[in-house]
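step: validate -> pass
step: tokenize input -> pass
step: predict -> running
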Amino acid sequence: MDLTAINGDVISGNGSVYIPKEADVVFGEKFYDPDGELYTEEDMPDFEVDFYVYNRESEKVTCSCEDGITDKCKILTDGTIQFFIPGGSFAVGGTLYYKVSMNLPNVNFSDGIQNDIVTIKTKYRIV
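step: predict -> pass
step: emit ->
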């Protein structure tokens, strides 16, 4: 397993952009703070990541970290996050998307929290 080039990449399987619906997938990503610094295992904020096939958000796989407790993911010491998507999670094929939701400390907001949400289209297609 090569962990050196995983920002938004599948880090298991045959390297194809086509992923069979029945295949288990390990997806890797790194998150950066607003100053461009990589979050590490020690300072990773709480997050929720939903993986889904385009236009099929109802069949999402949710991976999360809250107070250091992870679900369907693992944070490595270098800050890499491995997300585990079980085979058979998606009933139909299509382009794989993921939505990242984070609550970041930010004194510029009245509650002191910046609710940051971004949706990312991957190069992968579930078939």
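step: describe -> The longest strand covers residues 113-126.
step: cleanup -> pass
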